[in-house]
Design goal:
heterodimer; A: mainly beta; five-stranded antiparallel β-sheet; 2 helices; B: Nitrile Hydratase, Chain A; 11 helices; CN_Hdrase_a/SCN_Hdrase_g_sf (chain B); CN_Hdrtase_asu/SCN_Hdrlase_gsu (chain B); Nitrile hydratase subunit alpha (chain B)
Chain lengths: ~90, ~200
């Protein structure tokens, strides 16, 4: 499966707060991070929760605490499906 | 146990589903119990302690573990395949510069095969919400003070991958055997809420 992003790419997460199940936590919505690795190809959790299996690339994306919370000097790394991400 | 879920709606649903499957002859309750017992018996933090001790004494194993933990585990007789599906494991290494902490902010994802059942606090909303925004303060509550200059990396196991921390080998342990080293490791050390 071809991957849209590579390590080092800057990405922005979706701002959508969906009615359905998702694995994009609210605190990381609409934030800019950097891809730090690939996390394999897995069925998109949002669809799988509704019985639809559609695998797509998952990325490890690192965010600064400042970007997520407006303060702090640590980082938070999440696994994010490609659908959650757009170019920044 | 304080951290079971016997009263939760999901537990009730599972019991009902189990009863229907048994009634239809699709499930053998004794077989299910055997499978769960076998998994629970094998899933203990002693596995994680053993992995850490081996990594401390064997640089090749440590390099392999950090590069691809799933491929490295079989060499110590372990795997991430004990549950329903094989889970990808990342082992993240603490160094003098970087300290790692693990959380699952969305639920309570945890590498059960290596660490056994998760502690109650790991599943608490307080830990899950606060450790992502204020990790240094949360570690302080565990009695663990990091130097101000140490970078903290929080890993949110929000999807398919599970994480385990590789703590730093304590000073003055050069003479210890692998088993003695394993006895130094704690479950909290593998989550990142203790130094070792």
């Amino acid at each position: 499966m071809s991957e849209r992003y590579r390590a080092g790419d800057r990405v922005r997460t979706s701002t959508v707060d969906p009615d359905h199940h998702t694995r994009l936590p609210g605190y990381a919505r609409g934030r800019v991070g950097v891809v730090v690795g690939d996390d394999g190809v897995h069925p998109l959790a949002d669809l799988r929760a509704r019985g639809v299996v559609r695998p797509q690339p998952v990325y490890l994306v690192r965010f600064t605490a400042r970007e997520l919370f407006g303060q702090g000097d640590h980082s938070v790394t999440l696994s994010l499906w490609e659908d959650y991400l757009s170019d920044e | 146990m304080s951290d079971d879920h016997d009263d939760s709606p999901i537990a009730a649903r599972v019991r009902e589903l189990e009863a229907i499957l048994e009634e239809k002859g699709l499930l053998d309750a004794a077989e299910l119990d055997r499978a769960l017992e076998a998994f629970a018996h094998k899933a203990t933090p002693a596995n994680g302690f053993r992995v850490v001790a081996r990594a401390w004494v064997d640089d090749d194993f440590k390099a392999a573990l950090l590069e691809n933990a799933n491929e490295a585990l079989p060499s110590v007789g372990l795997s991430m395949g004990g549950g329903l599906q094989v889970q990808r494991l990342y082992v993240v290494e603490n160094t003098p510069q970087v300290h790692n902490v693990i959380v699952c902010t969305l639920c309570s994802c945890y590498p059960i095969a290596l660490l056994g059942p998760s502690p109650t606090w790991y599943k608490s909303p307080a830990y899950r919400s606060k450790v992502v925004s204020h990790p240094r303060e949360v570690l302080e509550q565990f009695g663990f003070t990091l130097p101000a200059e140490t970078e903290i990396r929080v890993w949110d196991a929000n999807a398919e991958t599970r994480y385990m921390v590789l703590p730093r080998r304590p000073a003055g342990t050069e003479q210890l055997s692998e088993d003695e080293l394993a006895a130094k490791v704690t479950r909290n050390g593998l989550i990142g809420t203790a130094p070792v």
